[in-house]
Task: structure prediction
Amino acid sequence: MGLEVIEKLKECGLSDLVVFHQLDVADSASIAAHADFVKIQFGKLDILVNNAGVTGTIVDPEAMRGAAAAGIVKDGVGVNWSEIMTQTYELAEVCVKTNYYVAKKMTKALLSSSYLIHQELSIFLLAWDR
Result:
């Protein structure tokens, strides 16, 4: 998918502004390789945006479409979410692991590879780690 985006950006003349690097946020070796890439390519990390995540649910697409067609998903009133989504303990574990612990691991790896860490961010991360 990332390479497809690069190709679309080339069509718009913006590809020189974007660098693609493969990353599997659930794989420690991939995280370390990405942190090394950032350090070598850019010297430091200025901004980290985490947009990877999982919902921790299984959604029944037909039930969701039906609720959307009826207009009840828009405001959530009258939605029987148990008919649309399934939640299990295992899915909740994956959700917390991915959305919290993997994001934390990524942040630590990328900040440790960076030469510049703002004092306010360091204080936040220390508080977050407790």
